[in-house]
UniProtKB/TrEMBL annotation:
Catalysed transformations (reactions): L-glutamate + NH4(+) + ATP = L-glutamine + ADP + phosphate + H(+)
Domain GS beta-grasp: residue ranges: 13-97
UniProt subcellular location: Cytoplasm
PANTHER family named among the record's database cross-references: GLUTAMINE SYNTHETASE (PTHR43407), LENGSIN (PTHR43407:SF1)
PROSITE patterns given in the database record: GLNA_1, GLNA_ATP, GS_BETA_GRASP, GS_CATALYTIC
Upper classification of the organism: Bacteria, Bacillati, Bacillota, Bacilli, Bacillales
Keyword Acetylation: no
Protein name: Glutamine synthetase
Family under the similarity heading: Belongs to the glutamine synthetase family.
Domain of life according to the entry: Bacteria
Gene name in the database record: glnA
Organism of origin: Paenibacillus terricola
Amino acid sequence: MSVQNVLNTIKENNIQFVDFRFVDLAGRAHHITLPSTEVEAETFVNGVAFDGSSITGFRGIESSDMVMIPDTETAYIDPFTAHPTLIIMSNIHTPEGERYDRDPRSIAQKAEEYLQTTGIGTTAFFAPESEFFIFDDVRYESGMNKSYFEVDSEEAAWNTGRKEEGGNLGFKVPVKGGYVPVQPVDSQQDIRSEMVKVMQESGLRVERHHHEVSTAGAGEINFRFDTLTKTADNLLKYKYIVHNVANQYGKVATFMPKPLFGDNGSGMHVHMSIFNGDSPLFYEKGAYANLSPLAMHYMGGILHHAPALIALTNPSTNSFKRLVPGYEAPVNLVFSKGNRSAAVRIPIAAVTPKGCRIEFRTPDSTANPYLCFAAMLLAGLDGIKRKIDPVALGYGPFDTNIYHLSDEEKREIRSVPGTLDEALNALEADYEFLTEGDVFTKDFIDNYVAVKRKEAQAVAVRIHPHEYELYFGC
């Protein structure tokens, strides 16, 4: 969409405000809103100023002036505002006009540009499956003398005996019993359908939605794949719509990886493939899972760099509450066709040459999608350049249920890091593949690690409620 087309959209739809957005280090959107009367062609050249010192991980107060340069291709009408508003994503530049090297969206674009310089292919496609929970109530507090959280859902397994409903109607979702039941067990069919409707009206091509495995409102909506940066843009739009439709229903949605103890969490399985023009590069008929040697090397790069990648794909302390055995979480760094207990799965059902892809199942939605997708692409490209053979390195294939292997057999399988600190250590030890083509800078990585270390420390020093149960009577 050209600048003129955006200006025409503003006029034709009686748009009153234009919402310019950018994304921070954690992947959360921020916005500054201008009356549409103040938006001119020059706005898209000169940009919109903001204070970078107020955004975690950006700039100090002594050099805080930053500029948003809008990307007109991302424009869509906000489905939630009372006054007609147009949303436009932006890249971050310095006041001197240079692309800011800590801007996650610019990093994603640089990864796409780097792919084209390698001669390997022209386009990388990504498709995330971002899961979430919808709760009816959430309460939490972390203070000097108390620490707790409590969530509730009308369909939760713990509410089979609840009397406060005005008559308990049953049909609760059992623990690990929530995968694709029909109504009335699936109490959130209509709210997810409303989310899909709003997504479609906002330009997303949605493929399906369903209830997920966990009790208490676990859900998933899948939108169609696209190129790296566009998919990251779409994921921000997706999360914005899920959060706000839930709010309209008097509920609250969360993409937190592990909001409940004792049941499955929320992952973000990411499907990837590379094309050269219109030609898919991951397909070779008759090979293992119909994967080409190039695809196998790409997968080798993902698995080889996985401990470092996980600092970007699973960047929260809560991520590692999900990455434990027994809850369908992909903790084993191996590959398999169709096997969901492996970190990398190759889908084989109803797959065409153009649909041939690999699925990295470890990530979750606390990841900044621009950084997450860029890092995975760079890891895969490194695997192609170095011809990393995942079979020779012992990464598989493992076509049996890994959770049923003996302890001795499991010891032969490399696992994901056990904590955020371990993942950050791995990133500090293995980051050179990210700096290829100057996609990530060493300054960015050092700054990112410092920010995430503070998060890990903030959790580590706080008293956990379960410690009272374990140790109060010592």
